[in-house]
Amino acid sequence: MAIDVRIPTILRTYTDGAKAVPGSGDTLADLFTDLETRHSGIQERIVEEGQLRRFINVYLNDEDVRFLDGITTKLSDGDVVTILPAVAGGMY
């Protein structure tokens, strides 16, 4: 099963600068485990204690996985997973 994973700039140090990498897995949790086998250190930046980190947004085919089944969201061949760090801060 081939899944296209879009990587944000801040995590590209783990993917040798690649904007997108292939992955596989039946769920998001499986996908992140698969990514870790080829891109050491990336999983801990996305997952904490078995859940998505608070300030990391993950989209499956443009849908926020927090409104699906979170890290247990099922994946299918050809899916696109986008990882985005939340943006906050600034002056008021």
TrEMBL record:
It comes from the Bacteria. Pfam families: ThiS. SUPFAM superfamilies: MoaD/ThiS. PANTHER family: SULFUR CARRIER PROTEIN CYSO, SULFUR CARRIER PROTEIN SLR0821-RELATED. This is Molybdopterin synthase sulfur carrier subunit.
